[in-house]
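Worked example 3 (structure in, sequence out).
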């Protein structure tokens, strides 16, 4: 893939994101640095980066396609349904249970995506660090 200046900028902005922006949010961040980048360029670049396996597309409950750079290690997502915040987490116990369930059903687990949709409990302090 030829990395033009605009593609490089889009890739850089996405790699700096600590959230999972959709194309519109990504375009907003990119045009803050270079106002000449149009929305169609962002769409085409995101599609190409996804095809190349450089980024991952997520379709969370809100119906918007959101993106993140392809992570070096597997992780799952908890989505706050009130705010849309996406929290990445890892759990050895969940991974073990999924393999166990697949095995019980006569399968070998080769991959999965886990999304938890949740609402923050009232009066509770968050105790788990998000990655």
């Amino acid at each position: 893939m030829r990395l033009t200046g605009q593609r490089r900028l889009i890739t850089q902005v996405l790699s700096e994101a600590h959230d999972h922006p959709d194309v519109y949010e990504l375009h907003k961040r990119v045009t803050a640095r270079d106002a000449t980048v149009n929305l169609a360029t962002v769409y085409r670049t995101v599609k190409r980066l996804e095809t190349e396996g450089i980024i991952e597309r997520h379709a969370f409950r809100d119906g918007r396609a959101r993106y993140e750079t392809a992570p070096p290690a597997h992780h799952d997502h908890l989505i706050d349904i009130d705010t849309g915040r996406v929290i990445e987490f890892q759990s050895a116990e969940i991974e073990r249970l999924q393999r166990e369930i697949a095995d019980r059903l006569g399968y070998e687990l080769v991959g999965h995506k886990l999304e938890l949709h949740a609402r923050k409990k009232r009066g509770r302090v968050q105790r788990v660090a998000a990655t």
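Notes: The radius of gyration is 17 Å. Residues 39-51 form the longest helix (13 residues).
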